[in-house]
Known about the structure:
The structure holds two protein chains of two kinds.
Chain A: E1 10-11, E2 14-15, E3 27-31, E4 39-45, E5 48-59, E6 72-79, H1 95-109, E7 120-130, H2 135-149, E8 159-166, E9 169-172, H3 176-181, E10 184-191, E11 196-200, E12 203-204, H4 208-243
Helix pairs in contact in A: 1-2, 2-4
Chain B: E1 2-5, E2 10-12, E3 21-24, E4 27-30, E5 34-37, E6 42-45, E7 57-65, E8 69-73, E9 79-83, E10 96-104, E11 110-118, E12 122-125, H1 131-135, H2 140-149, E13 152-155, E14 160-164, H3 168-180, H4 187-199
Parallel strand pairs in B: 9-11
Antiparallel strand pairs in B: 1-5, 2-4, 3-4, 5-6, 7-8, 7-10, 8-9, 10-11, 12-14, 13-14
Helix pairs in contact in B: 2-4, 3-4
Amino acid sequence: MAGGEKPVLIKDGKRLDGRGAEDLREIKIIPDYIKNADGSAYIEWGNNKIIAAVYGPQEALPKHVQDPQRAIIKCRYQMAPFSSLEEHGRTGPNRRAIEISKVTKEVFENAVLIDYFPGSEIDLYVEVLQGDGGTRAAGITVASVAMALSGIPMRDLPYSVSVGKVGESLILDLNKIEDNYSDADMPIAISPKSNDILLLQMDGNLTRDEVRQGIKMAQRAGEKIARMQREALKAPYERIAERYKK
Amino acid sequence: MQKIVVPGEKIADAQLRLDDGLVENNATYSTVIGIYDDERKTLIPLEGLWYPRRDDRVVGVIEEDKLNTYVVNLNAPYKGLIISKFVDTPLAAGDSIEAMIKEVDKTKTAILMRPRRLAGGKVMMVRPSKVPRIIGKNDTMIKQIMDFTKSTIVIGLNGVVWMKGGNVDLATAAILKIEEEAHTSGLTERVREMLQKGAL
């Protein structure tokens, strides 16, 4: 948490940017953003701007990292040096980037049917161009769109969103200021088909009831996010099909 | 009724045996972006990968000439192998070949048989899920392209296309158009129009 005087985050039931407690920021997903990648997508989630690209599956190199039973996923989450007011990425991946790469990788190890591709690797790149809180959640959301576009078979399209606590109330989808000054912050990634939780991290303190309530909030918001992911995936095909409809 | 489905989307409340489906809790879910037809019970992937299978016809490039085998790059996470003693004329690294898959072993390495060397020409990669559309029903689409462009075209199920002679540029453009519009109807006629315009 950042130092300094704590700003008033909720005033008359409204948050700093005018949202209610359970409102998401505006989300826009553009599929097939990078032509050279096997699958790619771009997301604008509030002020977050993130590109995700997937390459593979291809032969895993060096050879000793190969798993004869399943594919391995290599994930690289990186914030661009110009992405926020703080220092990022000038000297390669820092502690935070390594951690987020790891948790993102673990989300997709449970969502992708990796046992179809023994001995191969899938490369996933998540590049944050502009960050405004909740980049790991937005990164996972856009990465699952990119992964689906690459044609790699998946159990499900995971989405992710963060839940936080300000004073006594829980809020959804924290931005940078809320993230810095809130009492707790809990990013969650969920597989919408079964509501399995693929990622659950927490910074700060929440009671048991608050965690349960937070997960429910994330699931409610997730219906909306999952719908946007599906629409983004279907839109290009429907557009071409529409052009030639009789 | 046809509809576009995405990974994790439920396509039927029954256990269907589909290549790109996944059965969980007595229901079938899609694992890829595809078109599901609930009358024919088929799921055609729009984005998909190629898995080596017996009797698949593939096109590849020889990567390495080892003591008793040739290693073939199949544009996939798996390699192809040709046993040298079954090859009459020796091959060299860099040669394009067409071959059939004899068997696939546990590590998904494809053992190839009856390799045919493809001399010269151009090699292009397409998405493997679009290959059936490029070939067409009873080879109509590919025959049409070959008739108009006078090119020799060999397509492997792994998504590698070899072309030689004739108007290769026009054939490439036609194949790219099919790749983009594979899921639309009336494509054969549109490609014919395109070829007629281009051939003038």
